[in-house]
Every structure is written in structure tokens, then in C-alpha cells.
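Chapter review: from sequence to fold.
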Amino acid sequence: MHRIRLVFDWITRFAALAVLLACIAIFVLVVWNLSWSGPQRKPVEQIAGAQLDKALHLSSFQQVPGDAMLYTTLSWAVNYALSSGRAQEECNLLFFDTASKKGHWLFNGNDQVIRSMGFLTDPPSNRDRDFGPAATGKAVALLLEVEQPAKDGRPAQRHLAIAGADGRQVTTPG
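The C-alpha cell string follows.
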């Protein structure tokens, strides 16, 4: 009888020790998860030196055709019911040079809407209007249709703009 009681005492001690170690492990995991949430991502308003509204967001980066440069659109969500079917509107482009690890914006501000855009390539693509990432040659320029909101209640102005393939030297009419 004494041996059976001794065995049960040791089993009870091991069970208590196992429960204590499990509680300590769970506590350590909870504290670790609360204190470390992974690598800190920069908010959009701190990218490439721009001060941006929190309603803006970046899409996925894409490669400039035939170049190591990357680009992405900066968009803001618009009220779907009032936007004639568009869920977001692009207002700027961010270019990122993979060699120098630096980025820059196409436009200085975000008050325009980019209605359409495409890279012009050399040699020209085999298909008509083959713009964007599917283009086959090396990008030589970026062609955009830009809508500027009008001031003083006039209608918005649409115009074409052209920039270098690296997103520099934007030329607009006027």
C-alpha cells in the first residue's frame, strides 16, 4: 500500500510540474506575440518623402518593360455609387530604382486623376495598344491621360502627359 501511495505521489508531482511548465510556456508565447508583431512596415505617408492622406494606398509593384525599375500606382478609394463604376482612382505613380534602392513620385502632388497610362516601347510591340507589363520591348516613355480638377466650378481638364520611362521629366501641355 505504501508503494502505491508513493507512485501516486510521484505521478501527481510530475503532473503538477507539467501543468506549471505548460502555463509558463503559454505565458511566454502570449507576451512574445504581444510585444513583437513582425517587421514594422512604413506607412504610406512616409514613402519617398511624401506626406500623404491615410485614405491613399499603393497597389502591387510592376516592372517597367525592359528595365529593372519598378512602379506602382497610388490610389484612393471613392464612393462606388457615385463613381460611375470605378472602385478606386489612381492619382500618382511611385517609381523605385532597384539598383539605388530609392523611390520618387511622378507628380509633385496628388490632386490629379490618372485616367489611362501606358509605356511606349522600342521596338514597338506586335499588337496594337500593347501597354503595361505585357509590352515586349524596352520602355522609352510613359504616356498618360491626366484629369486635373478645375477650380472656380469649371469642368475638369483632361490632357496628355509624357514622361521618361523612369518616371522623370514629366511634360504636360501649357
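Two observations follow directly from the output. The chain has a mean pLDDT of 79. Residues 1-40 form one domain.
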